[in-house]
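Internal tracking record. Fields below are filled automatically when a chain is submitted to the structure queue. Please do not edit lines marked as system-generated. If the sequence contains nonstandard residues, flag them in the REMARKS field before resubmitting.
Queue: standard
Priority: normal
Entity type: single polypeptide chain
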Amino acid sequence: MNIETSKETIIAQKSIPKYKRKFKRIWKYRWQLAMILPGFLLVFLFNYMPMVGIQVAFKDYNIFEGIWTSAWVGFENFYFLTDAEFWDVFSNTIWLTVIKFVFGFPAPIILALLLNEVRNETFKKWVQTLTYMPHFVSWIVVAYVIEALLSESSGLINELLVYLGMDRIYFMGSEEWFRPIIVISSIWKEVGFSAIIYLAAIAGLNPQLYEAAIVDGANKWKQTLHVTIPGIMPTICIMLILTIPNLMNAGFDQIYPLQNPINLPVSEVIDTYVVKTGLNQGYYGPATAIGLMTSIVQLMLVVGANQLSKKYGNTRLF
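SYSTEM-GENERATED OUTPUT FOLLOWS
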């Protein structure tokens, strides 16, 4: 009887016009869709609508003529591919992003593993709070703090060096110190926020796995090595896929406030170069072409990272 009833229900549903079934489904989940709508509009307006401007990369763009009426020039705006200055900027970007990745990607994983072993809940919460809060501080504020700490004349670090009988160091005007400053400040600002993801993944592991490891005689290091890390490996793979495209994004908001004419040979990256070329010099076509090329490379990186993660880690983003 139940089978016949279900068959009748299916037949009755199929007899309803398709558009009515869709409307009924939308009405059923109307509140969920209403909550999704603001995010959808935000992504559409600020991620998809600006893609109309990609055509500027192939035009002799004039702000008075507009995007649609400016003359087409084909690939003339891609002359930067033969420009030695651009490749110097590209080299700076790769160097800086690779160093940030090598030191910055494992940092939150290590912090999460260390916090997972802390048994004093009060101390653990304080550490989490202190490492988490810098994420909400603007890079402009961070730049002022760095300037105050590393100032040659009155910076706290240089005052300490003088107290120890050492010479002052002009950190912000040194090509050798610029990259370490960027990497250290980046880790300090984001390590706590990123560690939350790994802490959540660790919290979701089955406690029986640790009990079995203890029965087998595994110490804390062995438990971390053979239980915790394999358990959070899918999360690590997903975060790796999301991080790989940033190899082409050094971080404009972090680097630009710390730039000066002395450290410019190592601090000029694609992000700052595009802004200066497009907004400061008015070469909108070449700046858009550089941005388009960067986006294509980032797309290739994320697809490649996803495929490698799928092949070797059995985890993928899409």
